[in-house]
Amino acid sequence: MQIYTRELLSRILPEETGFDSGWINTGSISLIRNRTQIDAFEKISLIGSEFGVESRMIDTDEISKLHPLIDTKGILGGLYSPDDGSLDPATLCTSYIKAATKYKAQVIEKCEVKNIKTDEDISGMKRIVSIETNLGSIKTNKVINCTGAWAPYIAKMVGMKLPQLTYEVAYFLTQGIPGIKNVPNIRDTARGVFNKRQGHAILFGGYENNKKLVGLVEEDFSFSLYDTDWKRSEPYIQSATDLIPEIAKVGIRSTICGPESFTPDGNPLIGESQYVKGFFNASAFSGGGLMLGGGAGKELAHLVAYGRPENDFRICDLKRFSSSYNETWLKESCHEYIFTRYEAKNPNQNPLAGRNLRTTPLSEIHLEEGAYFTCIHGREVPEFFMPGQTLPLLNYDYSGCYGYKKNVDYKYREMMDRDGSHFLDVDINKQVGIEVESIFNSAAVVDLSHLSQFDISGSESDKLARQLFTCDVTNLLNNQQTEALMLNEEGKILSYVTVIKHENQYRITAPSQQQESILHHINHLVQYSKHNCSVDDITGRFALLTLWGSESAKLLHRVSDDWKDLQPGECLSCGMNNTKVLIYSLLSDFSITHAALTSALRCRMKTTSPLICYQVHCNMEDAVFIYDHLISSNIRPVPAGLRSLKSVCIYSDFSNLLNVSLLGFAPHEVGLSHLCATDDDREYIGKSHLIKKENRSKIPKVFNLTAVSEGTLFPGDVIWKSNVYVGTIIDCIYDYKSNKYQMKGLITMSPDEFFSSIQTTTPKLIVGRRSYKVAAEMCFDK
């Protein structure tokens, strides 16, 4: 979005309108003050180069040449981007209006939205009917909410909440400074300050970590400003003057303190509501509205016109947050994002804000068992267990800001820091290894109740199912289970799912993160097809316990009075003491070989010992009773967490229930073509595009890697081949059987070119960061 915005402002708008857009090409330097920033900025530079963004690492001598006013003391270097720039907002708005009116758009000023009317379609879903304004009614079936800090007011008119909060943000404009002409913008995130030239002066501000919360901006606040809090701004003014001493000499001419809206992850809220057909949103750009607005507008226009964005923007999707959030979660999570925005983080780092808000009756039991919880889509999920320890989550302390007392002796945070180290923690590693051993060779219980679950029911649910899934689940026997994919209209993966058929009803289990997206996808299909059926989101109503290991079948006698052996995919409905459980036997052999990549090259999935797994479904209110009976067996099953299960399931399709790294790819690009039927008469969503893609190329974009030297790796680490950047790690799991990292790498160069160069030799690759690299091999058979 940022790349397109620059193209729009620097070339497209001036050409189409004949007027200046307000774009000023200045270049920018992101300053480096520590070794961690070197790794981070080099990664940004490498990945940016794949999108045509020119940047390079520079030393302090070059910084001084580009910006003579900077004091380079304490600076190690910088990342220089020559094509960066700045904007004049007033000129830009005028240019946008001129372009819009050229294409027959109508701009109506002083037109206040009073209400948005909706009605319900045959499936019970809301849809837009009209907008009521102070100037009259406008009949429409689509509304795009781009009202920034005021967006929650508009969303409320259709019964929606938007997870965004408004904060006061201050900027300072200096007096004129000699020699300021043609200097680049400066970002000094380590010192929490940025600046850019504004005419003959400098405009600067702070990356404040204790911004003043406004919450919901007043309805009539437009064209207003807040009073600048000089005391709160003092550290950032000092940082600015330390960086450019000339600021202290000339002084500050004026200040601007206004509202900016933020989300819990800093990304904007873009997309169509899953609950109101025709209600689109684009708000909360976290201070980046001018920078991202052009690209966001293009994607939103494509979404409105064609039902899908042109590019994958899942990280900005309106539906990425749980719709059941509360104000405590929102306030805490937004603050934590702002406070830690520019801190070096690792992917194992869990949030400390917004925790303990979505738990189950089993959460307290897991805590007593020593669970270290991770947070997935707002739900607390055991990551691993440390028997004999208790790692409670404490109330969020706002890092000591706003008068809150900072948590001390925080065991959970201490464990998180140990787990996030660049070196494997010996004690954690040992305990997860015990869990893995139990999953293979004895018995383990893994609680997966956080997964999303849906029921499709109705007289025409079979018709819907034939359009929804990549395999024909209508052929399943009653109470039989299978795995499938759900694709979008472009044949790309929306979600991996398991599906259970029960008479005319289908139960779907999917990754927790896809809860809102799947609900929107199915509701959209129901509305479009007009099938007589409906979808019910039952996430959180049922517990899902999985039993693993060679002794796991013996555990089932503890919860069933009429237990019998099950074949893979078979179901047993049973229970005891007035509780009802459904028990499913999963495929017992996880040694799956994926489809051929080319006629000469085949992906080698490392084989593991056959696994035995049973799923136990029960009402959430019965979960404690069932779990107690399982865990108290004389077999002594081990409570296990997600990390051990991910390690065990590295090479199985089941792993796609536990992470979402392969979403947005075509099935053949990630080795999941075997889940897609292309030779039947069904026209399921995405099938036509899928066939075209598979006929075009069988070569994947994602491949498997094994580390062959020691070192800790994370998703986002870079891949080199012969000292050339060739890709990025999108998923990384430690294999506790081989004691090596297993990874999925995304090729960012041409797949045909890359694979043609490795068919004769086993490719040697380097994975990691600039200051920390690990040798790796691709897993291929010739």
Structural class: alpha+beta
Count of individual helical segments: 19
- What's the helical proportion of residues? 25-40%
Radius of gyration: 28 Å
Largest sheet: 9 strands, mixed
Shape category: globular
- Which stretches are poorly predicted, pLDDT < 50 over at least 5 residues? 587-609
Estimate the strand proportion: 25-35%
Number of strands: 39
Separation, N- and C-terminal Cα atoms = 40 Å
Q: Give the averaged pLDDT, no decimals.
A: 86
Break the fold down into its secondary structure elements and pairings.
Elements: H1 2-17, E1 23-25, E2 28-32, H2 35-50, E3 56-58, H3 60-66, E4 77-81, E5 85-87, H4 89-102, E6 113-120, E7 126-133, E8 136-139, E9 143-145, H5 151-156, E10 165-174, E11 185-188, E12 193-198, E13 201-206, E14 213-215, H6 230-243, H7 246-250, E15 252-262, E16 269-272, E17 276-277, E18 279-283, H8 289-306, H9 327-339, H10 363-368, E19 371-376, E20 379-385, H11 411-419, H12 426-441, E21 444-447, E22 452-457, H13 461-468, E23 481-487, E24 493-502, E25 505-510, H14 515-529, E26 534-537, E27 542-548, H15 552-555, E28 571-576, E29 579-585, E30 602-603, E31 613-619, H16 623-631, E32 638-640, H17 642-648, H18 687-696, E33 702-707, E34 718-721, E35 724-735, E36 740-747, H19 751-756, E37 764-769, E38 772-778, E39 780-781
Parallel strand pairs: 2-11, 7-17, 9-18, 21-32
Antiparallel strand pairs: 1-5, 2-4, 3-4, 6-7, 7-8, 10-13, 10-14, 10-15, 11-12, 12-13, 16-18, 19-20, 21-27, 22-25, 22-26, 23-24, 24-25, 27-31, 28-29, 29-31, 30-39, 33-36, 33-38, 34-35, 34-37, 35-36, 37-38
Helix pairs in contact: 1-4, 1-8, 12-17
